[in-house]
Amino acid sequence: FQASRAASLLPQLLLRRRPASAGAFALLARPASSASGGLPPLTTEIHPGIKRGAFSQLTDADVSAFEAIVGGDHVIKDADEVLSYNIDWLRICRGQGQLVLRPKTTEEVSAIVRHCNKRRLAVVPQGGNTGLVGGSVPLFDEIVISTSRMNSLLSIDPVSGVLVAEAGCVLEQLDREAASQGLMMPLDLGAKGSCQIGGNLATNAGGLRLLRYGSLRGTTLGLEAVLPTGQVLDCLTTLRKDNTGYDIKQLLIGSEGTLGIITKAAILCPARPKSVQLAFLGLDSFQAVLDTYRLARRSLGEILSAFEFIDSESMRAVKQNLGLSCPLGEHSFYVLAETSGSNETHDREKLDGFIESVMSMDGCATDGTVAQDAGQFAHLWSLRERIVESLLVDGYEYKYDVSLPLADIYRLVEHMRTRLDGRVIRTAGYGHLGDGNLHLNFTTPKFDAKVLELIEPHVFDWVRDRRGSVSAEHGLGLKKSQYIRHSKADFAVRVMAEVKRLLDPNGIMNPYKVLPDE
Amino acid sequence: YIHIINKADMAASKGLKILVGCKRVIDYAVKVRVKPDRSGVVTEGVKHSMNPFDEIAVEEAVRMKEKKLAGEAVAISVGPPQSQETLRTALAMGIDRAIHVEIPLAQLEKLQPIHVSKLLAKVCESEKPDLVILGKQAIDDDCNQTGQMLAALLDWPQATFASKIEPSQDSKQLRVTREVDGGMETIDVSVPAVVTSDLRLNEPRYATLPNIMKAKKKPLAKMSPDQLGVDLQPRQEVISVEDPPVRKAGAKVESVEDLVGKLREKGLVK
């Protein structure tokens, strides 16, 4: 939300209500990891089994070549500066990349990649570096290619709703631009203040409103990318329908930077809703959460835009670790149900109907509130959006993101909580209930290999046995590549490897990620 | 017009009757846009909610009820039909009943604090509250006048910019702490009185679901300015409304050397 009036008043009002959605990721203070004087351990120490690929070593001649392409100012060699590009947002990985390049145009990216392919130098494309599976940072000495300078919005068509932007545009800024035309970006996630659209596409990011607007696979109309050979793949169409041949952009979406570097994207933006309402409910059983969801789909139907659940442990984390206040009493579960529509009166009526049903249904919501203004709206959302941040305060976070049949979602949390009883600070479960997507997190004061052993592969096996996905939206990155066969048939994985070989014959594009090493 | 109440010990009486003013304004988080004809700002289709200072006033009234200092709390709003939603919010926070003084659209844009205070004064004649709490100012016009004008019309004492309201030491008056430029000022006022709320008076509660449902059944009376016999003839004419001057764009530099160079160019650094 853009706040602009009574400027002297506003900072105080904001302080009161602590709306935190704007740039939450950008503002948070990341706690230092406990090992080795505040830095996370080297990824190669945590995964000693991974061997460096047969790539060349960086030479001065290479550095000069890059300087000629992007200009000396945009080649980062200084160890202190390069360090931040080597550490992921969760601070569980630390790579040993020596060089960061910051190109401004597709042509520069193409020239860089062509050089690296010729020289067999490994590269890691990096956007906002907010990925949660260690996929956006080097492992060994890969060269980081940052898209941060490629941050121009190219066009917005208010009639068709098509927005065309360079890959380095920050999601929140794109949403603001879209807002000025009465549009909105079709996705929203906690990292919006820092994540870039290129990275969102590369990871097929889901987020809070996938329930309503669908995934990027549907809303991306076109993209432009540089393939591992340096060739520019121009599929940047703004057409809604174009069934001419194979849809290659779908290979790149969700490829996590292993098939190429996305440089531009055309996104179909929905109309910005005139009326957004938020109900926040307290419930005392997971069955009540499922019943409330069913009710929401029936009574709110076409205007439902988000349905999230939070367990008591997660709520405790945001209250204790971030000092946020919850307007409801203690409950086992909390639900956020958001509606977005074109008519406030109609939507309020529908929401009233939903609330009446929820309160009269046996065992359903016993406690709840509806946001009365933008401040309350932002505060209630912050209770969900800042859970990840609050868990980091505990020390070290083990993060899992799975898709399961709805009835099994909380069974997994309870099962793991029992399994890890006494070994972790907390076991927190929350997520996009409407998408069948559970976020499961464990925290310890510092990294504990024994705890990791208790979690993996057990949690993945549990999910596999119920035909779920071991990574609903976060992707495989480095952390989960070995578990791909838990959710994909072996032959499918082999076909993926063929595609990778075809597009990246030298294997330079973000190696060690997504596909298991064989 | 003077209204004197039995100056018995306030704690022992059945409590004060409080009238709370609520104004429907554009939500504070919305980016306000000036109409192309510069006659005002765009309100059509824009999110509105209760003036934040009025939310604080409502919260204070409800808290005084909870502390048994007040017996009945009535909310009043002067505005268009949609002001009813604002009143429903007040009812959902714990107000007992509401009064809506409906202003026809044609006269809405020309409505000024002088008119609102006259309407409120008329309502006070019939409702006879012991305390009127208003927000100190509305965030759309920032006038900060209605409370003061109302007190003058009623010839009641006023305690503006309140950050705390409590019974006085002898419990016969109200002790109000005010936020003033020099710090805090504490005064005792006799009731009936007008108090206006400042930011630090309290933090408004969230409306709970059961109360939101109950609010629908609470009484909401409608009145018109004609019934109250108040003339809404505008005293002022808005000539134009304009955006503040656009901030000149800064220049982004790509490196520290560039920055130093530009600073030198502008003579800010030798």
TrEMBL record, chain A:
Listed GO molecular functions?
(R)-2-hydroxyglutarate dehydrogenase activity; FAD binding
User: Does this entry carry the keyword Flavoprotein?
Assistant: yes
Checking InterPro entries in the record gives: FAD-bd_oxidored_4_C, FAD-bd_PCMH, FAD-bd_PCMH-like_sf, FAD-bd_PCMH_sub1, FAD-bd_PCMH_sub2, FAD-linked_Oxase-like_C, FAD-oxidored/transferase_4, Oxid_FAD_bind_N
Q: What class of enzyme is it?
A: oxidoreductase
Pfam families reported for this sequence: FAD-oxidase_C, FAD_binding_4
> What EC designation does it have?
1.1.99.39
Cofactor(s) the protein needs: FAD
* Gene3D superfamilies with a match to the protein in the record: 3.30.465.10, 3.30.70.2190, 3.30.70.2740, Uridine Diphospho-n-acetylenolpyruvylglucosamine Reductase, domain 2, Vanillyl-alcohol Oxidase, Chain A, domain 4
Q: Which residues form the FAD-binding PCMH-type domain?
A: 93-272
Q: Which domain of life is it from?
A: Eukaryota
Keywords, sorted A to Z? FAD, Flavoprotein, Oxidoreductase
Q: Give the record's GO CC terms.
A: mitochondrion
Is-annotated flag, keyword Iron? no
Q: Which reaction does it catalyse?
A: (R)-malate + A = oxaloacetate + AH2
Function (record text): Catalyzes the oxidation of D-2-hydroxyglutarate (D-2-HG) to alpha-ketoglutarate. Also catalyzes the oxidation of other D-2-hydroxyacids, such as D-malate (D-MAL) and D-lactate (D-LAC). Exhibits high activities towards D-2-HG and D-MAL but a very weak activity towards D-LAC.
Give the record's family classification.
Belongs to the FAD-binding oxidoreductase/transferase type 4 family.
What name is this protein filed under? D-2-hydroxyglutarate dehydrogenase, mitochondrial
Q: Which organism is it from?
A: Macrostomum lignano
UniProtKB/TrEMBL annotation, chain B:
Which GO molecular function annotations are given, in alphabetical order?
electron transfer activity
Q: Does the keyword Magnesium apply?
A: no
Q: Which GO terms describe its cellular component?
A: mitochondrial matrix
The region called Disordered is annotated at: 228-247
Q: Which InterPro entries match?
A: ET-Flavoprotein_bsu_CS (IPR000049), ETF_a/b_N (IPR014730), ETF_b (IPR012255), ETF_beta_N (IPR033948), Rossmann-like_a/b/a_fold (IPR014729)
Chief localisation class: mitochondrion
The record's Gene3D superfamilies line, in alphabetical order, gives: HUPs (3.40.50.620)
Q: How does it assemble?
A: Heterodimer composed of ETFA and ETFB. Identified in a complex that contains ETFA, ETFB and ETFRF1. Interacts with ACADM.
Q: Which PANTHER family match?
A: ELECTRON TRANSFER FLAVOPROTEIN BETA-SUBUNIT, ELECTRON TRANSFER FLAVOPROTEIN SUBUNIT BETA
As for family, the record states: Belongs to the ETF beta-subunit/FixA family.
Descriptive protein name = Electron transfer flavoprotein subunit beta
Which species is this UniProt entry from?
A: Macrostomum lignano
